[in-house]
Design brief:
Shape: elongated
Low-confidence stretches: none
Distance between the termini: 12 Å
Radius of gyration: 13 Å
Largest sheet: 3 strands, antiparallel
Order of helices and strands: EHEE
Number of helices: 1
Helix content: 10-25%
Structural class: mainly beta
Mean pLDDT: 93
Number of domains: 1
């Protein structure tokens, strides 16, 4: 956050992909919401989950 002067970092992943969803959750990201029918793959729509982390929420390693 400090080096790049970031205020917010966002991670988006497929709602049904539990392994991908575990990453931002483990890192302390907050669930912002679900983007319904966000992407169409092979003619079928899928939801995306949106997580974010604000600079003041970041804990340095």
């Amino acid at each position: 956050f400090n080096s790049w002067h970031l205020h917010r970092v966002v991670i988006r992943c497929a709602a049904g992909n539990t392994r991908s969803r575990a990453i931002p959750e483990r890192l302390g990201f907050k669930l912002d919401g679900i983007m319904r029918d966000e992407i169409c793959i092979r003619g079928q729509y899928h939801d995306h989950v949106v997580y974010s982390l604000l600079a003041h929420e970041w804990r340095k390693p």
